[in-house]
Amino acid sequence: MSPLLSILVALGLGAQQCLGSASLSDRVIQCLTTADVPQALPGTSEFDKSRSPHNLREQFTPLAVALPTTVSHVQAAVACGRKNGVKVNPRSGGHNYGSHGIGGEDGHLVVDLRFMNDVKVDNCTHIATVGPGAKLGNLALALDAQGKRSIPHGLCPKVGVGGHVLHGGWGYSTHNHGLFLDYLEEVQLVTANSSVVTASATKNPQLFWALRGAGMSFGIATRFKFRTLPQPEEIQLFYIPFIWNLTQAQAGWRAFQDYAASKARPKEMNFRVVISSGSFLGAEGTIFLFEGAYHGSRADYDRVIKPFRDAAIALGGYADMLQYPEVTAVNYMDSLLYANNNALLFGPAGAEPLESGFYKSMLTDKLSGPTVDALMTAVSNAGQTNPSRFWLWIVSAIGGPNSALTTMFPASSTSYSHRSSLLLWELGDTVGTTETYPSDVGIPWTNQFVDLVEKKEGKTLGMYYNYADPSIGDHGKAGRRYWPGNYDRLVALKRAWDGEGVFENPQTVGRR
Ligand SMILES: Cc1cc2nc3c(=O)[nH]c(=O)nc-3n(C[C@H](O)[C@H](O)[C@H](O)COP(=O)(O)OP(=O)(O)OC[C@H]3O[C@@H](n4cnc5c(N)ncnc54)[C@H](O)[C@@H]3O)c2cc1C
Ligand SMILES: *[C@@H]1O[C@H](CO)[C@@H](O)[C@H](O)[C@H]1NC(C)=O
Ligand SMILES: *[C@@H]1O[C@H](CO)[C@@H](O)[C@H](O)[C@H]1NC(C)=O
Ligand SMILES: *[C@@H]1O[C@H](CO)[C@@H](O)[C@H](O)[C@H]1NC(C)=O
After folding, report:
1. Which helix (DSSP H) or strand (DSSP E) does residue 300 occupy?
2. 128 neighbors 134 (Cβ within 8 angstroms)
3. Distance from the CA of 343 to the center of ligand 1, in angstroms?
4. Is residue 304 a part of any domain in this protein?
């Protein structure tokens, strides 16, 4: 049954199915018009802009699109959706891989927050007040301009603040300073009954806990207040590339995870590995590009990376086909720029490309020996088992004994559930934007690696909502992956704050 039909049936209107989506859409549009809410009408280029996803595989058509510029517009839009039994979804930057900002299915009311994007830093407290529609790039520029401040967040400049912060937000300051959501002081939220509430440590603290990890399920955040940090003075951006055969990959992975989990890795060492098939650079074997951002001096970097670097170099396969220095000292703003577009590696990149594909995540600790051997065997064969698409994994060592995720913030401080995990994996598999991604082949191909790790390790792994994965099922099925240990508490809060399910996409926290 279509979502629209199920709403009608639930309302006892099954006999009036002939109303159809056009008239429901008309009613929502009329309601927005009556309430003076700016909107993008179907058939206009603004409408197409508001529904365009970052991941071209996930295309959906909303019933209506509101383009608020004020909190009262958002309140009125929520009321229009609720009155008509239409699900409401906020869209900030539109970068969700399951396109949940446009509903994750057809027939929702999208509240596109792109015009609510102000950033103001208080010169005295250094608290930043930020609109949800700001993009990470604009946020970083504004924090720089208004007092050379910073907040830990992700690397891609077009990701929206709203979706990113409410579900985590890791980047090249996370190992030493925490997640984006750890810097939230206060959220202004429009709730299901169109009230405006403040959530903070002292106001609605339960809601504040829920918003920092599962925020999309509880309302529309219309304003954030963040603590900010001074910018780090100097960052060493580094890229240590290898092309490895199976033996090297097995030993190299052990060196990576041993170093990532060791006390010898200081908190300033933000570290990850990018893995793909060598063929895309014309080399045989699997690419392991170890990279990261060390906050500190070059001399300190050389000293603290040495245990890992020596172990990896000893395996052979150092790939010197890239024309760039292994380490470059940059200031904070350049670290964001270069880390995102890899200009130090490949030269300046153009506009951020859209993608069409499937993304998956998992959270793991160090893998056991048998898991490493089996997974690296599968990875070494990936070029043969997946010759036609572009696969790329990013495994970020955001946890570990010196990570701010656990040393600075108590495990229960937010509904983000994965603080104690060492590694956050993003497994991506894409095709060119003019091609159609073969979901029937590509999704199982990617899922097999996570299945392998779960089977070998004998446990169910957590997953990261910011890498939303529609293949893991709806609501509770997905929720126990995204918020393990916290899901039941989130369900109770969902019932309290949105008992009717006004804010829903296929993977919002369920009401049962
Ligand atoms: C190119 C690219 C690079 C990325 N890099 C990183 C990275 O470095 N680190 C990282 O952690 N993640 C990264 N991500 C993932 C990113 O954090 C998530 O996709 C994030 O949810 C996007 O937020 P958005 O506002 O752009 O997305 P949207 O699609 O607009 O929103 C995502 C979800 O949040 C909800 N939402 C949005 N705004 C609000 C609001 N104001 N109130 C309540 N709910 C809201 C939406 O309804 C939807 O469910 C990246 C993604 C891409 C595509
Ligand atoms: C705040 O500080 C910034 C830069 O440090 C300065 O440009 C701006 O004028 C200051 N604003 C106020 C209101 O003092
Ligand atoms: C991988 O490369 C190393 C170093 O060149 C070599 O000693 C080893 O035999 C190779 N292993 C395989 C499986 O090809
Ligand atoms: C709106 O919902 C909240 C949470 O359920 C409740 O506390 C509040 O009283 C409601 N406000 C109105 C005006 O109904």
Report:
1. helix 298-313
2. no
3. 24
4. yes
How much is the pLDDT for 279?
A: 59
The CATH number linked to 190 is 3.30.465.10
- Residue type (1 letter), 396: S
Which residue out of 78, 91, 467 has the highest number of ligand 1 atoms within 8 Å of its CB and is therefore the one to mutate?
A: 91
Distance (angstroms) between ligand 3 centre and the Cα of 248 equals 7
Residue 191 Cβ contacting ligand 4 at under 6 Å: yes
Residue range 123-153, pLDDT digits in tens: 999 999 999 999 999 999 999 999 999 999 9
Pair 424, 360: CB distance under 8 Å: no
Establish whether residue 497 lines the binding site of ligand 4, counting it when its CB lies within 6 angstroms of any ligand atom: yes
Distance CA 430, CA 171 (A): 22
With respect to residue 503, please indicate whether it lies within any of the assigned structural domains.
Answer: no
For residue 20, the enclosing domain spans 3-112
Q: Is the CB of 251 under 6 A from ligand 3?
A: no
Which residue owns the Cα nearest ligand 2 atom 1?
Answer: 123
Closest CA to 253 of 384, 82, 345, 380: 380
What does residue 99 show for φ and ψ, rounded to 5 degrees? Answer: 55, 40
Q: What share of the chain is helix, strand, coil (3-state, %, to 5)?
A: 40, 20, 40
Of 499, 466, 509, the closest CA to residue 54 belongs to 466
Q: Name the residue with the closest Cα to ligand 2, atom 5.
A: 147
CA 228 to chain centre: 21
> Going by CA atoms, what residue is nearest to atom 5 of ligand 4?
497
The residue behind tokens 């509430």 is: 197
- Tell me, yes or no, whether 436 lies in a domain: yes
Element (H, E) at 111: strand 109-112
Ligand 3 mean position to 316 CA, how many Å?
Answer: 9
| Same-domain check for residues 289 and 422 | yes
Tell me, what CATH number does 276's domain have?
3.40.462.20
Q: pLDDT tens digits for 240-264?
A: 999 999 999 999 999 999 999 999 9
Sole residue written with tokens 């080399």 = 283
Find the 242 Cα to ligand 3 centroid distance in Å.
13
- Please say if the pLDDT value at position 76 is more than 90: yes
Asked if residue 426 lies in contact with residue 359, where contact means CB atoms within 8 angstroms, the answer is yes
Nearest residue by C-alpha to atom 1 in ligand 4: 193
The minimum-distance atom of ligand 2 relative to the CA of 123 is: 1
Tally the domains of the chain: 3
Indicate whether 102 and 123 sit together in one domain: no
Nearest residue by C-alpha to atom 11 in ligand 1? 169
